[in-house]
Amino acid sequence: MADQLQPTKSRFPGAGLAKGLAVTLRTMTKKTVTEQYPDAQPELPPRTRGVIGLFEENCTVCMLCARECPDWCIYIDSHKETIPAATPGGRERSRNVLDRFAIDFSLCMYCGICIEVCPFDALFWSPEFEYAETDIRDLTHERDKLREWMWTVPAPPALDPGAEEPKEIAAARKTAEKLAAQQAAPAAPATAEPQPAPSAGEPRRPASSAVPHAEEQARAAEHPTRAQGDSRQQTDQPRQEGQE
Amino acid sequence: MNDVLDVALRLLVVFVVFLTFPLIVGQTEHKVMAHMQGRLGPMYAGGFHGWAQLVADGVKFAQKEDVVPAGADRRVFQLAPAVALLPYLLVLLAIPIGPSEGAVGQVIDAGVFFVLAVMGVGVLGSLMAGWASANKFSLLGGLRTAAQLLAYELPMLLAAASVAMAAGTVSLPGILDAFEWWWLPWQIVGAIVFFVAGLAELQRPPFDMPVADSEIIFGAYTEYTGLRFALFLLAEYAGIIVLCGLTTVLFLGGWHGPWGADGLGWVWTLLKTAVLAFIVIWLRVTYPRLREDQLQKLSWTLLVPLSLAQIALTGIVKVVIQ
């Protein structure tokens, strides 16, 4: 590449001119790159930032997206509802109910911070991009429109072969394996022949004796904590090279 | 009465060719240039691959207001497009496309002389436009046109003279009658010089310094609008037709072809002209514009000596074979 950029002395005068002609002629025989957009829809990559879709079942009105938005283009209204106690003598719970969720796409700069920051996966990128309006005020889209766009969100692209397992799946699998081991352990002395270990990744209802332990681990699986090896980075000691 | 009809018919045919062929070249340029740049070019006008794009352009130009600047030399300004366009129509009249008497608008004995003289007049249109516009960019463009005309008319004439020497006649049908296939390698240098000098005279890229739109807006045509501007553009494309036709007739053997029946000579002429027109477009897409001094240098230090050498070669061979 580098030696192509440098002017080279060629033996024949006009070799450079001929090369130029060859380039244009070759380009003519190749396929053009023109997108015939209104006639043919473009093929967009799966992570295209077209529009933001809202999956409002996941929204808890935590307002993180509205607070983090650099353009302040997210409008959220909500009210609190009280849920009567589930058990007699229990405490009443309150919960946020979403009244309005709107994004002003005339202000939005498509940074995607709201999507990044949402802790409950309520916001998603959709490749949908045909929502031009003739009035700028019509670009403020309310929750029903954002919900419609939610259904245009494509499935996440497949992981690369040999990629690291997603954290959620890894944690769930670990928990399931532990549960299976616990279930197998008390069963072993009781019967003469041990049961075969249940297949990994399939969470089974734990035996009654192991209930308190198992519930704790199931909760751990829902909110995976930092992996064991990473915690060392948080200590004050400088990391030593070559120790691993 | 029959003579009148004959003349009228010939004039009509030449006029129709004059109006349609430049449009075909223009459309081809749209498409070829687009594909050479990885684009599609016009796709909508007319429905099928934008075939009517230039018709639509013409309609657009016709609708526009014809503005004459307040400080312009009115009469000269308005006359300039006609002076630029009409010479090419006259030249087209003299180009033979087939061997028979009916395949040329008008047989002119001093054909080469007539054709080159009248083509030189076409450049005068740009000069008039540049001077009459009362605009500094137009004036710059006009002066550059003049410099270019002076530089490139000479090699063009010398190259054409070489062919006339070889054939022993200045009549275009006469040159074609004398043509042998081995003239092609014999006159190849002259052909290239003629073609390149003709391109420069048409102010086609890469020799479009007089209209260099990135520095002097549009040269001599800066102040033109509407139909008059369209006429200048038409003159450029008619010029391509004329130049390619002349190169075909003078150097490539016109209606002579390796095979084909007697009646199909005109197909050869049109085919060669079309190939040359494609090369004109190809060169435009490929090369960047020559600077003004490079332009002059190319003519005076390369094309003029080459054409003189071609004349010497022609003379030597002519003496040897006699």
From TrEMBL, chain B:
<dbReference type="GO" id="GO:0016655">
    <property type="term" value="F:oxidoreductase activity, acting on NAD(P)H, quinone or similar compound as acceptor"/>
</dbReference>
<feature type="transmembrane region" description="Helical">
    <location>
        <begin position="229"/>
        <end position="253"/>
    </location>
</feature>
<feature type="transmembrane region" description="Helical">
    <location>
        <begin position="7"/>
        <end position="26"/>
    </location>
</feature>
<comment type="similarity">
    <text>Belongs to the complex I subunit 1 family.</text>
</comment>
<comment type="subunit">
    <text>NDH-1 is composed of 14 different subunits. Subunits NuoA, H, J, K, L, M, N constitute the membrane sector of the complex.</text>
</comment>
<keyword id="KW-1003">Cell membrane</keyword>
<feature type="transmembrane region" description="Helical">
    <location>
        <begin position="154"/>
        <end position="176"/>
    </location>
</feature>
<dbReference type="GO" id="GO:0048038">
    <property type="term" value="F:quinone binding"/>
</dbReference>
<dbReference type="GO" id="GO:0009060">
    <property type="term" value="P:aerobic respiration"/>
</dbReference>
<keyword id="KW-1278">Translocase</keyword>
<feature type="transmembrane region" description="Helical">
    <location>
        <begin position="265"/>
        <end position="286"/>
    </location>
</feature>
<keyword id="KW-0812">Transmembrane</keyword>
<feature type="transmembrane region" description="Helical">
    <location>
        <begin position="79"/>
        <end position="98"/>
    </location>
</feature>
<protein>
    <recommendedName>
        <fullName>NADH-quinone oxidoreductase subunit H</fullName>
        <ecNumber>7.1.1.-</ecNumber>
    </recommendedName>
</protein>
<keyword id="KW-0830">Ubiquinone</keyword>
<feature type="transmembrane region" description="Helical">
    <location>
        <begin position="110"/>
        <end position="133"/>
    </location>
</feature>
<keyword id="KW-1133">Transmembrane helix</keyword>
<dbReference type="Pfam" id="PF00146">
    <property type="entry name" value="NADHdh"/>
</dbReference>
<feature type="transmembrane region" description="Helical">
    <location>
        <begin position="298"/>
        <end position="321"/>
    </location>
</feature>
<keyword id="KW-0472">Membrane</keyword>
<keyword id="KW-0874">Quinone</keyword>
<dbReference type="GO" id="GO:0005886">
    <property type="term" value="C:plasma membrane"/>
</dbReference>
<comment type="function">
    <text>NDH-1 shuttles electrons from NADH, via FMN and iron-sulfur (Fe-S) centers, to quinones in the respiratory chain. The immediate electron acceptor for the enzyme in this species is believed to be ubiquinone. Couples the redox reaction to proton translocation (for every two electrons transferred, four hydrogen ions are translocated across the cytoplasmic membrane), and thus conserves the redox energy in a proton gradient. This subunit may bind ubiquinone.</text>
</comment>
<dbReference type="GO" id="GO:0003954">
    <property type="term" value="F:NADH dehydrogenase activity"/>
</dbReference>
<dbReference type="InterPro" id="IPR001694">
    <property type="entry name" value="NADH_UbQ_OxRdtase_su1/FPO"/>
</dbReference>
<keyword id="KW-0520">NAD</keyword>
<feature type="transmembrane region" description="Helical">
    <location>
        <begin position="182"/>
        <end position="200"/>
    </location>
</feature>
